[in-house]
Amino acid sequence: MVGLVETQTSVAVEKLRQIEIEVSAEKGSFNLFALIEREDSLGKWDIVVAANWIDTERKELINTIASKIREKLSENEQLLLSRIVILSPSDILVRSLNMFRVEHGMSKLSNNNFNGTIIKEAYLITSKQQ
Questions:
Q1: Residues 92-100: contacts with CB under 8 Å, at least 24 apart
Q2: What is the reported pTM?
């Protein structure tokens, strides 16, 4: 069962990477676009995003990402997701994750504590300071 969940997660992460590429081309680049499993999330993953341009387009961005998720991810892959979290680029978690530089890629982190936020596992698709 664990292998199946890991495979579903890997496939979902690749699809989310494609979503990030599409959205950044349409709207602008992200400071952070990550899939994060918090220690207390019971196996569900959060999509965490941050960008300087988001303040004026919060609701539209959530709708855009959610629409692309419904379009590209299978029902089982969608069940792995909990929520879309929009943070400010100045948020301490965003700034901490921006130490790991990646753009339109996939960098995996495991068992980290960022200023009290315990991350069981994370896939950084884009993580950069702007």
A1: 93/48, 93/117, 94/31, 94/32, 94/50, 95/129, 97/32, 97/34, 97/122, 97/124, 97/127, 98/31, 98/32, 98/127, 98/128, 98/129, 100/124, 100/127
A2: 0.88
Q: What is the dihedral of CA 83, 88, 92, 98, to 10 degrees?
A: 90
> What are the domain boundaries of the chain?
2-127
The tens digit of pLDDT for each residue in 53-78 reads 888 778 899 999 999 999 999 999 99
> Residue 91 in contact with residue 29, Cβ under 8 Å?
no
